[in-house]
Automatic annotation (TrEMBL):
Listed NCBIfam families: T6A_YeaZ
Family under the similarity heading: Belongs to the KAE1 / TsaD family. TsaB subfamily.
Keywords from the UniProt entry: Acyltransferase, Transferase
SUPFAM superfamilies in alphabetical order: Actin-like ATPase domain
Any Pfam family hit: TsaD
Gene3D superfamilies referenced in this protein's UniProt entry, alphabetically: 3.30.420.40
The keyword Transport belongs to this UniProt entry's keyword annotation: no
GO molecular function, one term: tRNA N(6)-L-threonylcarbamoyladenine synthase activity
Protein name in UniProt: tRNA threonylcarbamoyladenosine biosynthesis protein TsaB
InterPro entries xrefs: ATPase_NBD, Gcp-like_dom, T6A_TsaB
Designated gene of the protein: tsaB
Gcp-like domain ranges (all copies): 29-154
The species this protein was found in: Microbulbifer celer
Length: 235
């Protein structure tokens, strides 16, 4: 099974090739430089793996949530490649990939829940809760909310059992409004990685959760705000 995975969710840009158990990845911090870097990185990772695009079984991409511009770049790139090679696409949650990556570099976390949070700007965070049993899907609906609303949700006891170990991952955890929470450990300095998107895509692929290139859509979680931005651009 060969999967080409791409992410431009935020300030980072990464491309990964999964070929059986072998994984190769290129990752760079490329704020506002995704468009120029992405396709050369794709060519480079395929060459490194001695693989042609036609030999890929599927493409995987972060569907969001995340930066409006970043998501559009990744989705558009994957759509173009999928059309050209006539390949299916596996959309993966960027929050799930963030949690999976944090768990990958912190094996001591085990299968305990990971609350992944990305900075959504406007004093809000994108967040979801991911367990070890089904790491591709949040235990609750992925949301965008003020930090105080996230605190209320986690303290309600409906998301995780009281007193159980849980972990926090992602740059969204910098907000002071999240201080009332007490995760077992917090890692803010982590990013969405294409290799984690690829690994989660493999699980989703095995469950038949893929789409055609034309059906691929980003998940912004902030559709109303996005629509207003589009209206301002068109005026």
């Amino acid at each position: 099974m060969k999967i080409l995975a791409i992410d431009t969710t935020s300030g980072a840009c990464s491309v990964a090739l999964l070929d059986g158990d072998a994984v190769s990845e290129q990752f760079v911090q490329a704020e506002r430089d995704h468009t120029r870097r992405l396709l050369p990185m794709v060519d480079s990772i395929l060459a490194e793996g001695e693989c042609k695009l036609s030999e890929i079984d599927a493409l995987a991409v972060s569907r969001g949530p995340g930066s409006f511009t970043g998501l559009r770049i990744a989705v558009s790139c994957v759509q173009g490649l999928a059309f050209a090679a006539d390949k299916p696409v596996v959309p993966v949650s960027s929050l799930a990939a963030l949690a999976s990556g944090a768990r990958r570099v912190s094996p001591g976390w085990g299968s305990s829940p990971v609350v992944a949070a990305l900075d959504a700007r406007m004093q809000e965070v994108y967040w979801g809760v991911y367990g070890g049993g089904d790491p591709a899907n949040s235990l609750v609906e992925e949301s965008v909310s003020a930090p105080e609303q996230l605190v209320t949700a986690l303290q309600s006891g409906q998301v995780m059992a009281a007193g159980a170990a849980w972990y926090a991952a992602g740059p969204g955890w910098h907000y002071p409004g999240l201080a009332p929470l007490s995760p077992t450990e917090t890692v803010q300095e982590c990013h969405v990685h294409a290799q984690d998107i690829g690994r989660l895509a493999l699980e989703l692929w095995q469950r038949g959760e893929m789409v055609s290139a034309e059906a691929l859509e980003p998940a912004y979680l902030r559709n109303e705000v996005t629509w207003k931005k589009r209206q301002r651009i068109r005026q």
